[in-house]
Each structure stands twice: as structure tokens, then as C-alpha cells.
Amino acid sequence: IPDVPIMYFLIIDVPLRGAAVQSSTYEGWSAGQAIDGSCSPDGKDSCTHTLAMDNPWWRLQLDGVYRVSVIEITNMYSTRKWLDGVEIHIGNSLVNNGNDNPRCAIIHDVPDGLTQTVHCWGMEGMYVNFYKPFNTTYLMLCEVKVYGGRNPFYQSNIAVPLRGAAVQSSTASGWTAGRAIDGSCSSGTDSCTHTSEMDNPWWRLQLDGVYRVSVIEITNRNVARDRLDGVEIHIGNSLVNNGNDNPRCAIIHDVPDSLTQTVHCWGMEGMYVNFYKPFNTTALTLCEVKVYGGRNPFYQSKSSLVWGWVYECDIWLG
């Protein structure tokens, strides 16, 4: 990896404010009650509550585009299991009400505390969504506190190509995982990967360290192009579920007018880059994957007490 000059940015993490909406409202348990400053878990006067519905969601619209470092979530003291499986998404799109933005985390009730802290490591966006991808269910939140800052502004011109080793969930007829990182953008049979037909196939690139990923270029095959539809890109440091539970950068599809497309991941941090296809009895094919980013900015955090609030001093070295 080429050396990159180190520049220093110092930002003070502050609580971010905005306006809240949700997919539906049950008997006055409005979306704004999750950002009213009260961490009370006692119910109607301080918590949100959707109707029973498919895929309920709650969204905070910030007053601009921010880098989100930390989110604190307070659950209700009863029906605590309603928090299980809720996804947090951050980004700038309102497609699918914002629920298709990159995913920071999947959360669950924490048995030993009603309030939990989730790190989103500087993910960028105006919208912070809580999304529950289940049928006929409720979403409840008693308090959501989002911390971050407007700076540093992400500079993609320091991104460099990243290298690593590739593996995949299975291999069909010698179409090995390493073909997607062989430097050839050919879309023919000699330079593409191919899994066997299986449930939830995946391909994973392991980088040689933890990086901030800025851009990923993906070249699709020139036939069976629809096999790229619905593929998820995940980036992170965990190998739980083969790395497919790491934060999601994007959901991609075939681009009709080009075999190669570019996806922005805005500095998401990780050692593993996964392509994951969450469908049954299907194959995953990739002809070339180019990942760009850099080791810096390196995220560090330390706490300081300011006016009775715990803020974070985020130091980015980039």
C-alpha cells in the first residue's frame, strides 16, 4: 500500500438533533418522544410505538450531513424483546424510507441494562433509521441519542487500491474466489468467480489489516447478469456468520448500461469485505472487485465531561 501523508483533524463529538418520523403511530406514542431528552423507559409519555405492521421503522432526520460515531438507545422496561433484530441504517437516501441506506448494526435487548451504546465509526448521513424487518410486529424506542460531527470531510483522493486474499462459500467447476481480484476486468469464463447453487452464497475479501473503505468497483459477468441483483456488500471486523453480519454498505444490482459499477462506502472500517446474496438456491458470480481506501483516518475515542454531559473527542488521522 503506498504511503499516504498524515493529516490531523480534531472534532468534538456533540449530540445531534433533528426531526423524527415513524411508519405509524399507536395511540399517541409519537416518533418525537424518542428524542425528547427523557431516558425514562416507563411507556406512553416518553416512548415511541408503531402499530402492529410489516417492517416498521423510525427515522431521525438530522439538520445536515454528519459523521455518526455513537448512538445510545434506551429500550422500554416491558416488552423488551421488541428491540430484538432491529437494524440501524445511516445515509442520505430516502429510498424505501431510508431503510436501504448502509447498515451500522443489528441490535437486541441487553439483559443487564435498558440503555445500550452502538458504535457507527463515522458513518456519514442525514438520516438515521431504526428498521425492524419482520412481519406483523411493533417497534418501540424510549430514547435515541446520536453523537457525531460535521468534520472531517471525507477526501476520496487519498484512497489507494487495497489487496488481500479471497474465499467464497463454495466453488463451481474451478471458478475460484481469487479470480475476482486477479486484476482482469474481463467478464468471460476464465476470469470470474462462481459459487455452486446454494442458499445464501457469499464471497469475502480479507484485507491485510483494518482499513477505511471509500469506493468499491464491481464488474459483473456478461451473461446471467441478474445474478448480481440483490447482492449485499458488508464491511467490518467480525467473522460471525462468515462476515455477513458486519455493517452493510450497499445493496447492488446489475447496471443495464455497464458491466462495471462503482459503490461508495464513505470510509466504513473493516478487515473483511463481503458480497452476500441472501436468497435460496442461487449462485453468486463476480468478475472483478476493486476495493479502494486507506489505513487512515484511524479512529480513536476518549471521553471527557462537559457541562454534565459525556461527549467524545474524536481524533481522525488521515
Automatic annotation (TrEMBL):
UniProt similarity note: Belongs to the fucolectin family.
One GO MF term: fucose binding
Organism encoding this protein: Gadus morhua (Atlantic cod)
Gene3D superfamilies on file: Galactose-binding domain-like (2.60.120.260)
A Pfam short name: F5_F8_type_C_2
This protein's name: Fucolectin tachylectin-4 pentraxin-1 domain-containing protein
Keyword Cell inner membrane included in the entry's annotation: no
SMART domains documented for this protein: FTP
Keywords linked to the UniProt accession: Calcium, Disulfide bond, Lectin, Metal-binding
Protein's job: Acts as a defensive agent. Recognizes blood group fucosylated oligosaccharides including A, B, H and Lewis B-type antigens. Does not recognize Lewis A antigen and has low affinity for monovalent haptens.
Presence of the UniProt keyword Endoplasmic reticulum in the record: no
InterPro entries cross-referenced by the UniProt entry: BG_Antigen-Binding_Lectin (IPR051941), FTP1 (IPR006585), Galactose-bd-like_sf (IPR008979)
Domain Fucolectin tachylectin-4 pentraxin-1: 11-154, 155-299
Description of how the protein assembles with itself and partners: Homotrimer.
Source organism phylogeny: Eukaryota, Metazoa, Chordata, Craniata, Vertebrata
SUPFAM superfamilies associated with the record: Galactose-binding domain-like
